[in-house]
Amino acid sequence: MDDRDYMALALEEARKAFELGEVPIGAVLVSEGQIISKGHNLREIGHDATAHAEMIVIQDACRKLERWRLSGTTLYVTIEPCPMCAGALVNSRVDRLVYGSPDSKAGAVESLFNVVQHEKLNHRLAVTAGVMEEECSGIMKEFFRERRRQKKA
């Protein structure tokens, strides 16, 4: 499997979030070609501001692997991580981040900040941006278009 294949799995997770009424962001953590964890946003259902797809996947992977260092892993996420998630990626020592679409309002990899490659931090991630960007941004646009339509009704 390649970056597009794993991003397609992250998009499946984003669709699950969409169906639940959550902001449709999905994530997949991979190590040596094996999927360690998959997840999607659950903030609304869980009443938890930290229940972002990336956080859910990181926490699940740490439990499964019984370690907090996620060295040797790649995280695939449909939307550029926010500052909280970018910080968690650095702190958990994920090696590589692949994301679909930038987030001009909260992105902490390229849009507003670059937390994951900040030279003063003790760990930096390799980053690949724009994988399946149209599909990743498309599901977000569809979600918010639907939400606006529901508010008008």
Write the layout of secondary structure elements.
Layout: H1 3-19, E1 26-31, E2 34-40, H2 43-46, H3 53-65, E3 73-79, H4 83-91, E4 96-101, E5 126-129, H5 133-152
Parallel strand pairs: 3-4, 4-5
Antiparallel strand pairs: 1-2, 1-3
Helix pairs in contact: 1-5
Structure description:
The protein has 153 residues and is an alpha/beta fold. The chain has five helices and five strands. Helices cover 41% and strands 20% of the residues. Helix 4 (83-91) links the parallel strand 3 (73-79) and strand 4 (96-101). Helix 1 packs parallel to helix 5 (133-152). It is globular and about 50 Å long. 41% of the residues are buried.
In short:
By secondary structure, the chain is an alpha/beta fold.
Key phrases:
alpha/beta; 153 residues
Low-confidence stretches: none
Order of helices and strands: HEEHHEHEEH
The overall pLDDT average reads 97
End-to-end distance: 43 Å
The helix content is: 40-55%
* Counted beta strands: 5
Shape: globular
Structural class: alpha/beta
Radius of gyration: 15 Å
Enumerate the strands of the largest sheet in spatial order, edge to edge or round the barrel: 2-1-3-4-5
Biggest sheet, open or closed, and with what strands and sense? 5 strands, mixed
Number of helices: 5
| Percentage beta strand | 15-25%
